[in-house]
Design goal:
With about 140 residues, the chain is an alpha+beta fold. It has one domain: Aspartate Aminotransferase, domain 1 (Alpha-Beta Complex). Helix content is about 35%, strand content about 25%. The strands form two sheets. The protein has a six-stranded antiparallel β-sheet with strand order 1-2-5-6-8-7. It has a two-stranded antiparallel sheet with strand order 3-4. Strand 7 and strand 8 form a beta hairpin. Helix 2 packs across helix 4. The longest helix has 18 residues. The radius of gyration is 15 Å and the shape is globular.
Length: about 140
Amino acid sequence: MAELKTRPTDQDPAAFVAAVADPVRRADCERLVALMSQATGAPPRLWGSSIVGFGHYRYRYASGHAGEWCEVGFSPRKGDLSIYLMAGFDGMEALLARLGRHKLGKSCLYVRRLADVDAGTLQAMIEHAVAEIRRRHP
C-alpha cells in the first residue's frame, strides 16, 4: 500500500507564511493561522512543503488504507488560497450561500483573497468542519 506523501514536518510554519511574497496574500495567511488556531486549539504545523495544518486525526478506509491528516489547513497556491476543511461541505449549504466568491473541491474551499468572503461565515465554516471531523474521528 502506498504511503501518504504529505506528512507533518519540523519546518517552521511562521517562516513559511512570512516568505509569502505578496503582502495581501501573506496577511490573508496570517489571518487564517489565527482563525484555524482558535478553532482547533492547536498550533500551526507545516505538512509537506506547502500546507499549514492544524490539529490532526487518524482515519482508516474500508479498504484498509489508513493515515493521518490535519483537521483543517490552508495553502497559499499561485491562483487561490486553498482552504482544507477535511469534513467536506455537507450541512454547510446555508453558510456557503452567505460566504461570498469561492469555488469548491471535495474538501477544499478556494478563494482568491479573504476580502472576497464574509469573515464571520468563514470562521463558522472552519469551526463546523473541526467539530464534524472530531465527531467522525474521536
